[in-house]
Amino acid sequence: MGRASQAQAEENRRRVVETASRLFREHGTHASVADIMKAAGLTHGGFYKQFPSKEALIDEATAHAFDELGRHHKDGLEQHSGQRAAAQGALIDAYLSPEHRDSPADGCPVAALVTDMAREGEGQEARRIYTEGVGDFAEWLTTEDQDGITRLCTMLGALVLARATNGSPLSEEILTTARAALTASG
After folding, report:
1. What is the pLDDT of residues 114-141, one digit of tens each?
2. CA-to-CA distance for 186 and 154, rounded, in angstroms?
3. How many CB atoms lie within 10 A of CB 98?
């Protein structure tokens, strides 16, 4: 019986982290504990059995989002038979697509959490995780001809602007123009 309850507690924790990761990417880290627990199908009272604070959940949910991003990069390489340039091109196409623009909850944590992390104190674990994740993403985007930081900044800026102008023709133009600029010589 103890094993089942421990297994259930681990499953509940995993569900809360996954749910928080999605809600934070969609609504920001100001999403409430009550909303996260409700979306996870759990009671608000159970939160503090799993986490010492909301900040601890933000840390773990941020790490989870970047783990997902890393798995996505690895999967992209496998789908393109280890051809990094092809995997990068496919990533750029998907990143700068209307589908990604319209689905922040399932999208890139770099874009979705940028303003929240800018407000985090330098000593916060979530900000450290975010900074490391940005560096890893930029490194993954680096080619012989293009700097990964420049590519990431272009992608991030285009996605954020496309989300902010969604519903106007400018939004699609931003995505198309950035995608063309990044794939022209890459």
Report:
1. 999 998 877 899 999 999 999 999 999 9
2. 13
3. 13
* Gap between the Cα atoms of 114 and 123, Å rounded: 16
- The Cα 68–Cα 71 span in angstroms is 5
Measured CA to CA, the distance from residue 76 to residue 89 in angstroms comes to: 10
Cα atoms in the 13 Å half-sphere on the side-chain side of 164: 9
Computed on alpha carbons and rounded to an integer, the radius of gyration of the chain in Å comes to 18
Q: Kindly report the length of the chain.
A: 186
Q: Helix or strand or coil: residue 152? A: helix
Name the CA dihedral angle for 59, 60, 66, 67, rounded to a multiple of 10 degrees: 150
Q: For 53-112, how does the pLDDT look when each residue is reduced to its tens digit (9 = 90+)?
A: 999 999 999 999 999 999 988 888 788 887 988 999 999 999 999 999 999 999 999 999
Helices (H), 113-147: 114-119, 125-141
Q: For residue 45, give Cα distances in angstroms to 9, 37, 48.
A: 14, 9, 7
CA distance 71 to 73: 5
Cβ within 8 Å of residue 64, ≥6 positions away: 17, 18, 21
Residue 184 tokens, joined:
């022209």
What's the whole-model pTM score? 0.89
